[in-house]
Design a protein that fits this description.
It is built from ten helices and eight strands. The chain has 316 residues and is of the alpha/beta class. The protein folds into two domains: 214 residues, Alpha-Beta Complex (Spore Coat Polysaccharide Biosynthesis Protein SpsA, Chain A), CATH 3.90.550; 70 residues. An eight-stranded mixed β-sheet has the order 7-5-6-4-1-2-3-8, sandwiched between helices. The longest helix has 33 residues. It is elongated, with a radius of gyration of 25 Å. The two termini are 34 Å apart.
Length: 316
């Protein structure tokens, strides 16, 4: 399908210590842009923008060299603000320079060959096009299990999200204008975009192995990211605490009656094991509940301060 009017496309890539893969990714994107221009899908002034999220290696030096070509642009953040904020910085900075934006990780494990499908879906009326993995065969069993469990948990908690979608998406600039109205400090873009609305569609692809370098999302960051997503969009954990409290109260009534009857019958409990066990169970549940409440209070604390989500040091 061809466009009546070609679009000016901007591709945003958040980068953190990506010196091993950046040059390879740039070469692949350059070739892809030439194909899209030849197919009359995008304009010749479409561009690729790398967002350096406070890298400690030579990532920014590589970006500076790449920007000698008109197709490449660079944004350097003052320090490491995190993956989601780096995406945000790229989208908000480049919004007026492009008709549409694609966000994709710098390692290009997401398939850039579906750019064509995304553009075609946009031509058919979709203002948001989600890149969705059609399988997780390349993942380890543990990563596959935890990722799928996370998406199912989000669905159970009534959080709008797209199953097996990460941060590979095509967005019309009008959607980014609406996104700017969301002022949360704790951002979870995978939940915010479905919340914005507008017509959307999915394109499916197989995720490729990393070209070089190491993943920037070890298990600790993945778990933290998942927990941030849950607490940013759902109060179900707080409601769960209420339900646990009701169950514990009913159990305490049951045990109270049982102990009273035992005492009246002269069958008082000997020893301390059972008492200690009950105390440990109740104390553990209380600590877990306080921890969940503390997470939400911490988010309130962060939101009230309204600190900037990113600070730009340099734009090329």
């Amino acid at each position: 399908m061809s466009l009546i009017k070609k679009i000016r496309l901007g591709v945003i890539l958040p980068c953190y210590n990506e010196e091993a893969v950046l040059q390879l990714s740039a070469e692949k994107l350059r070739a892809k842009f030439l194909d899209l221009i030849a197919a009359n899908l995008i304009t010749k002034d479409s561009f690729v923008c790398f967002v350096d999220d406070g890298s400690r290696d030579s990532t920014w030096e590589i970006i500076e060299n790449l920007t000698k070509e008109p197709i490449f642009k660079g944004i350097k953040l003052a320090t490491n603000f995190g993956h989601q904020n780096a995406i945000l910085a790229g989208m908000f900075t480049c919004k007026t320079m492009a008709d549409c934006i694609i966000t994709i990780d710098a390692d290009l494990q997401d398939d850039i060959d579906v750019f064509d499908k995304m553009i075609n879906a946009y031509c058919e009326g979709s203002l948001i096009v989600y890149g969705v993995r059609d399988n997780r065969d390349s993942d380890t069993f543990f990563k596959k299990f935890t990722a799928q469990s996370f998406y199912k948990l989000m669905q159970w908690m009534k959080v709008k999200s797209v199953y097996n979608h990460a941060d590979f998406r095509f967005i019309d600039s009008r959607v980014i204008t609406e996104l700017e109205k969301f002022n949360e400090v704790s951002l979870f873009l995978r939940g915010i975009f479905p919340l914005i609305g507008f017509k959307s569609s999915n394109v499916y692809y197989a995720r490729s192995p990393r070209l070089a370098g190491e993943t920037k999302y070890p298990i600790s960051k993945m778990l933290n990211f998942a927990w941030n997503g849950i607490t940013s969009f759902s109060t179900t954990p707080l409601r769960f605490i209420f339900y646990v409290g009701i169950v514990m109260f009913l159990l305490s009534l049951f045990f109270g009656v049982w102990v009273t009857i035992s005492a009246l019958n002269g069958n008082a409990i000997k020893g301390w094991s059972s008492t200690l066990l009950v105390n440990l169970i109740f104390s553990g549940i209380n600590m877990i509940c306080l921890g969940i409440i503390g997470e939400y209070i911490g988010k309130i604390y962060q939101e009230v301060k309204k600190r900037p989500r990113y600070i730009i040091d340099e734009i090329i």
